[in-house]
Amino acid sequence: MKRFFRLLSAALxxxxxxxxxxxxxxxxxxxxxxxLGCPDNLFMRRFLPLKMQMPGKKRSKIGHLARLxxxxxxxxxxxxxxxxxxxxxxxxxxxxxxxYCTDTPEPGILFYHPHENxxxxxxxxxxxxxxxGKGCLLALEHRASRRIVIESANSRADFDPxxxxxxxxxxxxxxxxxxxxxxxxxxxxxxxxxxxHHLNPQRxxxxxxxxxxxxxxxxxxxxxxxxxxxxxxxxxxxxxxDDYFFTTDRRAFSFFKARGFNIVRQNSxxxxxxxSLSVYAARHGIGYINVEAEHGHRAxxxxxxxxxxxxxxxx
Length: 315
Ligand SMILES: [Zn+2]
What we know:
This protein is of the alpha/beta class.
């Protein structure tokens, strides 16, 4: 019981702390520490009625407390001596799922930053949302890397968090690290958690990404496999080909094209199932817009984000 109160006071202290000083004014951060259920949450389970532990249930005050507990553990540096098959949640396997929110919610709309190494996208989106004073950015934070690694006693799941939303995608992204069934299950559980708690409830998801000069750009969607999965491509030669929108939505395509932005619309019937969120979103009736810009193109990405705000303001 002493441990309970120690964790409780740590959680309350954490809740009382001001937002990280690096955050733009007007944003606050809510952190979840994935995976929940290991190991601090095992302790919490003794105190929670079963129905509050069911994944997918609406959040309760106690569930929120459990998340604070996990967050407290993540930042206190506390070491658990508990032996379990859970991934090492207090060590390098931990993933933080962080919501950076303004004080004004925007129900059904979520900005999403899955690749932590794409720092331009995160900074510009946080700054633009703070200035706009409305909406939330969901970010995955792990090792400042593109890929996420969740290790347990039995497996090592090493995956691209934008390739995990279908079974085919998970198999392909895990193949690179020759992972087995346990790693597939770990990855599927992580995807399910993100979908259930954060992504499925949305009407529109605005993903924010960065790319490198010389890699995939707007012209890549004119031919080959990417061309096969594209329904429409609009290229404005005056713009950098690395700065472009990618959407599943006809109305969004017309809107951004009319404003002179590079844009691709996915052909959701022919697109290769690589497990990315655009494929999942199209299959499940969730609107999807990706704001893709080259690393370091802060002005271009900011301009694109403000165009998204205009798009969202349309009836
Ligand atoms: Zn990315």
